[in-house]
Amino acid sequence: MSKTRTRFAPSPTGFIHLGNIRSALYPWAFARSTGGDFILRIEDTDVERSTQAAVDVILEGMAWLGLDHDEGPYYQMQRMPRYKEVLAQMQAEGLVYPCYMSVEELDALRERQMAAKQKPRYDGTWRPEPGKQLPPVPVGVQPVLRFRNPQTGTVVWDDKVKGRVEVANEELDDLVIARPDGTPTYNFCVVVDDIDMNITHVIRGDDHVNNTPRQINIFRALGKEPPVYAHLPTVLNEQGEKMSKRNGAKPVTQFRDEGFLPDAMVNYLARLGWSHGDDELFSRAQFLEWFDLDHLGRSAAQFDETKLRWVNAQHLKAMSDDALAVLVAEQLAKRALSGDEHLPAICGLFKDRCDTTVALTDWSSRFYSDELVQASAEDRAQHLTAAVKPAITLLAQKLEQLSTWDKASIAATIKEVLAAQSLKMPQLAMPVRVLVMGTPQTPSLDAVLALASKQKILQRLKSV
After folding, report:
1. Could you give the CA distance from residue 162 to residue 300 in angstroms, rounded to a whole number?
2. How confident is the model over 380-391, as pLDDT tens digits?
3. Which CATH code for domain 5-81+185-236?
4. According to its UniProt record, where is this protein located (predicted)?
5. Rounded Cα gap, residues 459 and 464, in angstroms
6. Which of 90, 284, 347, 379 is the most buried (most CB within 10 A)?
């Protein structure tokens, strides 16, 4: 069997979202799991709507998720000479013909067909046939080129998701494959690209199903066998609508900026239409070991941000403190803050409370910013009472006298103050947390204080 070659072929007419990027994940995974090649192709023939900014989001999003390509990116607009070469070949072989029907004539034809309850379609007026008299060629009109679709028989393929699909050729009209100015159309370019790039498997969204029989017929007209197809069900947003920019879908790079981990995103996206038993959490390596086309789901998958955050939290907890510290340091730098040797330990202390690296950076920033996150008026009123202030003052005095600033020394000092003031731990710990961290809820107080600057802690305790 030939080497697996898959492709991702986005159109840069809008910012790529999770529904789109899933159509990159599966062909990438299939190529990687079978030792094949993954090709990136930018289908930018819609010149008016294509933007460089959208291309940048595609490239950034794929790089962030680690969906590396072996070839490309190829740009269709740079392949125009090749498409025109194949068009000329097809003209010479009688596989296409010029059609002079105007847009107005086509519209009128469709209206008549719909009024007669017929499927609107081109009626073959300009299709040459033996003995057929074609209309006179109108003066000064540039024709489109139409593909001479077979008029009998059926197009059949075994879809890896949908199963066996059959479409009668009489249901398909003669497709326009070149516009009046000679530029080729989408369905034609795709076939030429897939032939030239030796694509063996096309894994794409099921919004392309209607294009597939037309493309298969063009493959066969060019003497080539079509690839294996797998048409993925739609990804729905949380409201149950098709995920799209119009429906508020976020660019995939926004999830990066919001602190999601690439491996967690791969894990979550993989489960939006594929499964390995009941496994919900898995590494990238496990995913590539398990992935196949036989366990792709047939039903639409629905995005659920709560579930995504849970998956991200599990991956975050499983990461080493040192690896997390690298990511948090990058985010601290965006806030004009810099960490120190304590940052890995801070990440380890707080990661169980966080579902994104942004949330973890929020905690970490409290250790490095001179400006304290202010506790709510309610927390201050509840915990910073007149009765507890003498204990806080005593704690500050005793902490200032410490020659060693570590967890054990701080814990012993806290115990001394509790005994001297006849207090229980929560009675002192909650107010101290409010003063030094801006919240009454943190991990163990001695661990938190040990990781902070002694000077900063004393300054905050004395501000009561």
Report:
1. 12
2. 999 999 999 999
3. 3.40.50.620
4. Cytoplasm
5. 10
6. 347
